[in-house]
Structures are given as C-alpha cells and as structure tokens.
Amino acid sequence: MFTMSEADVINCTISHEIHQYLFSCVYILVLLVGVPSNLYSLYHAALQLKQKNELGVYLMNLTVSDLLYLASLPLWLQYIFQDDDWRHREWLCQLCGFLLYENIYISIGFLCCISLDRYLAVVHPLRFTSLRSMNAAWLVSGIIWLKEIAVGVVFFRHKELSKDRKNQSVCFEHYPMQPWEYPVNYYRFTIGFMFPLAILSISYLCVLRAVGRSAGTQPVQKIRIRQLVSSTILIFLVCFSPYHVFLLVRTLLERDCSFIAGIFNYYHLSLLLTTLNCVADPALYCFVSESARRGLYRAIIRPFARVLCCCCRRGNSSPANPATDSHEVATDENNV
C-alpha cells in the first residue's frame, strides 16, 4: 500500500472505456502472435550470429527488446481488467512504463542500425568495413541500451502512480502533464523520432538508388534488399509516427481538461500502435534468411490462417469447397 497527497491526484476526470474494449483485445492478440514469433526470431538471430553476420546482432537486440515489453503485457492487461486501477507496488508500475518506452526507442534505434548497415553494405560495400564488423555492432548496441536506460532513470525519480477522482491508482498517466515531462517529451520527439526519421529516409533513398543502378546484384537479392529497407521504414512510420505527432500536440497545447478529453482517445490509439511493433519486427527476418521466412510462415502464419479459415467456414451458411482451399494452401507452400 502507498499514500498520496492531494498534489498526486489527477486533476482531470477522463473516461478510460477505450482501454476496456480495444486495448484488451489488441494486447491479447499481440501476446498470442508476438511471443511465439519473437522466440522463433530469437533462434534465427542466433543462427545469424553463428555466421558472423553483424545484422544478426541488431536483429537479436530488437527481438530481446520486444520480448521484454511482451513480458510486461500481462500486468497491463490486469490493470485494464481492473478498470485502470493499479494494485501492485509502484516500482512495478515504473518498470512496466519503462519497458513500454524502452521498447519504442530501442526499437527505433535498432531499425536505424539495420537501415544504416544495409546502406553501407549496398552503397559502400568496400568502405567502412570496420563499421560493419561484429565488434562494432555489439558496441553500437550497448550504446543504444545504455542511452535508453539512462533516460529511463528519469521515470524512476518521479512518482508514476496517481489517484483519480474515483480513488483508483492510475499508472503512468498524468492529466495534465507534469512540468518535468515537457523537456523529456521534446527530447523524445527530436532525438528519439525526428533524427531517426531523417536517418531512415536518407538511407532508404540511397539504398534504393544504389540497388537500381547495380548491375552485379542478382534480381532476387535486389528484391530482398528493397523489402528489408522498405519494411524498416514502414514499421517506423506506422507504429511510431502517430504517437509522436500526438505527443508533440499534447506537449504544445495541453493546458485544460477539455483539450485532454478531446485528444485522449486519439493519443491512446497512437500509443496502442506502438505495441504492434512487437508483431511487425519478426517480419524483418523474412528478408534476411530464406529459411527464416519459410519457418516463420509454417510456425506462425499458416496456423493462424487455418484458424481464421475455420472460423469463416463456420460462420458461412453455404458449404465451402475443400478442394479449392487445399489447392490454395498447396500453392502458398510452393511460393514460400
């Protein structure tokens, strides 16, 4: 148990209905898909490390970050099912919040590393070889982790549990924002989002141009390189851009409860999109290793596709054509 002063009470009363319905469904889906796919990705990252592929270092760190965040989702689910009332110790709230933001910015960091690594491999294949070594990859990975851990210390210095007007303990939500959050949010937007966006965009355009001009690269390799760099920037834009846009809007304009009530659902929807990063990241392995692509399809995608097909058949009043369905599955396997 813990005690709070009047200053710790949230000033604005906000409806959390979006958490009860949408968040719980998405979190459960992310757990069901994200845990097995990331564990499988971790195995293939280890294979890349055995082959002395520096790309495997970045992919492994990305997967570890996703798994750490996925480990916190059961506590967030319990928090949601208890009507946004945190009933654990405050340090657990701080840890879960830290893992949430750690996953966002460590994922962004390693997506940048993957893009830069492909840029150096494609645009400058004979230069900067020392930057594409295993030692350099581990050093860069360590710097990214240490940077985010140092930023995370900020959260552990402040109280992250607040009381709402219903006397419930709210975790990692301040309405309105606390004064110490403003500089942190500006740092997140500029260094954590805009700077990586510039790196991703420039490396993406340079890689596409270099691949298009290359006469020695096989067509299959060109396609795989394009898919890898396109996937990194797509994951970045879909999962992280909306959140940082609304984060900046809140930081600049949030002054009263009416504004907070109007933006609350949009802001939390954008935060929910960052969770999908845990499901999207394993797809990157499909463009690094052919065996990883086949294995991920057989272990994760095909079983879920079969479950969905069964659900659709049961919901359909007209009988399905089993011959056609089996033909489609056989065709998919041949295309893998």
UniProtKB/TrEMBL annotation:
GO terms for molecular function: G protein-coupled receptor activity. GO terms for biological process: cellular response to pH. Pfam families: 7tm_1 (PF00001). It is found in: Cell membrane. It is a multi-pass membrane protein. Its main location: membrane. Keywords: Cell membrane, Disulfide bond, G-protein coupled receptor, Glycoprotein, Membrane, Receptor, Transducer, Transmembrane, Transmembrane helix. Residues 317-336 are annotated as: Disordered. One of its GO terms (cellular component) is plasma membrane. The keyword Transmembrane helix applies. Residues 37-285 form the G-protein coupled receptors family 1 profile domain. Belongs to the G-protein coupled receptor 1 family. This is G protein-coupled receptor 68. It comes from Lates calcarifer (Barramundi).
